[in-house]
Design a protein that fits this description.
By secondary structure, this protein is mostly helical. The protein contains five helices and two strands, in the order H-H-H-H-E-E-H.
């Protein structure tokens, strides 16, 4: 991709591109709305669900730290600490330390966090099975129109 002045892409955008982008964004927003609503109805903040998913979804050889969660969740350090604090107060995660470097604080799910996450994840996977094909088609449309 070429970039024009001010780092913006130097490309011509047609009506089909705008329609494809709008449809793709609408599909993403529908899924995110579903996710946020489901989390709230389950008694957790949407960000708490995202935190638990990031902790559980961390690579097997990587115990999640605050720094790791900042990167995965795309939030600042102080925001991650506050999110962990709220989620820990709810009994869904706990902090722990591992040898040899006892200075590092890691985050793990509690038994309650595992239970809540499993329920939420099952609903999310079911929704993706339903809504996923339309989202994929919308993304393919964006890619197809952009490459044209």
């Amino acid at each position: 991709m070429r970039y024009g002045d001010h780092g913006s892409p130097a490309t011509t955008i047609g009506d089909a591109d705008y329609r494809s982008l709008a449809e793709f964004r609408a599909r993403i927003r529908r899924f995110l709305h579903f996710s946020e609503d489901l989390a709230r109805r389950s008694g957790v903040e949407p960000a708490q669900y995202q935190l638990m998913l990031a902790v559980k979804g961390a690579p097997a050889d990587h115990s999640p730290t605050i720094t790791y969660l900042c990167g995965v969740l795309q939030i600042r350090h102080h925001s991650a600490v506050e999110l962990v604090n709220r989620t820990e107060a709810r009994g869904l995660v706990a902090r722990f330390r591992e040898a040899p470097d006892r200075r590092l604080v890691f985050i793990r799910l509690t038994a309650e966090g595992e239970r809540v996450l499993a329920t939420l994840a099952a609903h999310h996977l079911a929704e993706i099975q339903t809504a996923g094909p339309a989202l994929v088609r919308a993304l393919e449309s964006v890619l197809r129109h952009h490459d044209a």
